[in-house]
Write a structure and sequence with these properties.
Layout (H helix, E strand, L loop, with lengths): L4 E6 L7 H8 L5 E4 L8 E5 L2 E5 L13 E4 L4 E2 L1 H11 L10 E3 L4 E2 L2 H10 L10 H9 L6 H6 L3 H8 L3 E2 L6 H6 L2 E4 L24 H5 L9 E6 L2 E4 L12 H10 L11 E6 H11 L3 E4 L8 E9 L16 E8 L5 H15 L3 E5 L7 E3 L1
Parallel strand pairs: 1-10, 1-11, 2-5, 2-10, 5-7, 6-8, 7-9, 11-14, 13-15, 14-17
Antiparallel strand pairs: 3-4, 12-13, 15-16, 17-18
Helix pairs in contact: 2-6, 3-4
Length: 372
C-alpha cells in the first residue's frame, strides 16, 4: 500500500466487511484509527484461522508489533466493555494493551445508558448497547468524558492502565500522527449516518468522511477513501430496504452468505443491490475508490439483479420515500476467482457510480482479496 493515509468506509447500511479490509491493509500503516461509532459495531476478523469480533478496538493486525491503535473522541466508549475486549484479546496478544491509545476527550457510555436503551428503544431495533442514550447526554451537555474518569481516579481507568492502555488527548500526538501513516476505520454506513442517512433510521454518530475531521484529524490529508460494498444489500434493524427479499430466496442468500449480526446474532435483512442508494452513499461519504466483497456468494448465477432508478432524483435523505424501482439484470459468473468473468458486472458498477473498483474479495481471509 503506497498511500500515506487512507480511510475504509461503508457505502450503504454497514456490514460490508470494513474490519476485514482494514485488517488486511493495516500492516502497511503505523496507526489504525477508529474515528466514530461504538461497541454496537461488530467487525469480524480472522487471524491464523481464528475468528475475532472487534467491537471497540480498531481492526489492526495485532500480530504486527509496529501498529498502534487510537480510539478517538468521535467514539462513545463503554470502558468496562473495552477492558473486557482487551483482556480477551490478551490471551493471544499479551502486549496488545500497550498499543492501544484512547483519546481522553471521548464520551463514555454508562450502565444507565444501556439499561435505558434496552427498555425504551426496542422499536428502533437497536443493539441495546447504550449508544443512543449516551449520545443524547453528549448533545444535551450532561455527558461524561474519559478525562472525568481519569480525574476521579476511577477503578476502571486503573484497570485499563494495568493492561498497558494509554490515555492521551489527540493534540498531544499531532506531530506523531503527521509523521506517520494512518488508516481510518469507519463504523456502520453512509445511509446510517445521523446527518446523511435515512432519518430517523440511523445511528447517532458520523459514518462518512466528515467523522474523521470532527474527531480532530483536520490536519490529515487522505490519499484514498475506500467504500465497501457487496453485490447485494443487507440491513441490520429497522428502516427502508426497498429492494428487500422476503421469500425463500432471502433465506437461501442469508444462510449462504452468513448474514447474521456479529453483535446481536439477528438475521440481517437482504435485498438486491441498490445502486441508487450506493451512489448516494459514495457521494455523501467522499468515497473515491470501491472494494467489492462476497462475490463468491453469487458464483454460478447467470444474472445478478440490481436496482438502477427510483423514478426521481435522489439528493437528500428526504428522497428515500416511496420510490418507483427500476431493475436491471446484469451478467453473472461461474467463478469469481476469474477476473474476466466478473469484469462485465464490475464495469457496470463503475460506470454507474463513476467510481473505480480497486479490490474485490470472495471471502474473509487475506488470500481471498484480489487487487484489480
Amino acid at each position: 500500500m503506497t498511500n500515506k493515509n487512507i480511510a475504509v468506509l461503508d457505502c450503504t447500511l454497514g456490514d460490508n466487511a470494513k474490519g476485514s479490509l482494514t485488517h488486511y491493509f493495516s500492516p502497511s500503516f503505523d496507526w489504525c484509527v477508529r474515528h466514530s461509532g461504538s461497541l454496537n459495531c461488530g467487525h469480524v476478523i480472522y487471524r491464523n484461522d481464528k475468528k475475532y469480533v472487534h467491537h471497540l478496538l480498531p481492526s489492526a493486525d495485532y500480530r504486527y508489533k509496529h501498529i498502534k491503535s487510537f480510539l478517538s473522541s468521535g467514539m462513545l466508549i463503554d470502558l468496562k466493555a473495552l477492558y473486557e475486549e482487551i483482556a480477551l484479546f490478551r490471551q493471544d496478544f499479551p502486549e496488545i494493551g500497550k498499543s492501544i491509545f484512547v483519546d481522553i476527550d471521548a464520551f463514555v457510555i454508562k450502565p444507565e445508558h444501556i439499561a435505558y436503551d434496552k427498555e425504551h428503544n426496542k422499536h428502533l431495533q437497536t443493539t441495546g448497547k447504550g449508544v443512543g442514550p449516551a449520545s443524547v447526554d453528549k448533545y444535551a451537555r450532561t455527558g461524561s468524558r474519559v478525562y472525568n474518569y481519569i480525574n476521579d481516579n476511577a477503578d476502571i481507568i486503573n484497570k485499563l492502565k494495568e493492561l498497558g492502555v494509554n490515555f492521551v488527548p489527540l493534540l498531544a500526538l499531532r506531530e506523531t500522527f503527521e509523521k506517520s501513516k494512518l488508516i481510518f476505520e469507519g463504523s456502520q454506513g453512509a445511509l446510517l449516518d445521523l446527518n446523511s442517512g435515512i432519518y430517523p433510521y440511523t445511528t447517532t454518530t458520523d459514518c462518512t468522511v466528515s467523522g474523521i475531521y470532527s474527531a480532530g484529524f483536520h490536519f490529515v490529508k487522505l490519499d484514498k477513501v475506500y467504500g465497501m460494498m457487496k453485490p447485494y444489500l443487507t440491513r441490520s434493524g429497522s428502516g427502508p430496504v426497498f429492494t428487500e427479499l422476503n421469500d425463500e430466496d432471502a433465506k437461501v442468500l442469508r444462510e449462504k452468505a452468513g448474514e447474521f449480526g456479529s453483535t446481536t446474532g439477528r438475521n440481517r435483512r437482504v435485498g438486491h443491490l441498490d445502486l441508487v442508494m450506493t451512489r448516494y452513499g459514495i457521494q455523501k461519504s467522499g468515497i473515491n475508490a470501491l472494494i467489492m466483497v462476497k462475490l463468491d456468494i453469487f458464483d454460478g448465477k447467470d444474472t445478478i439483479r440490481v436496482c438502477t432508478d427510483y423514478g426521481k432524483p435522489v439528493h437528500s435523505p428526504s428522497d428515500f420515500v416511496e420510490p418507483t424501482l427500476t431493475y436491471l439484470d446484469l451478467p453473472g459468473w461461474k467463478d469469481s476467482r476469474n477476473v474476466e468473468q466478473i469484469k462485465p458486472f464490475l464495469s457496470y458498477i463503475e460506470g454507474y457510480t463513476k467510481t473505480k473498483i480497486e479490490y474485490v474479495s470472495r471471502g474473509v481471509r487475506p488470500e481471498d482479496i484480489i487487487k484489480l
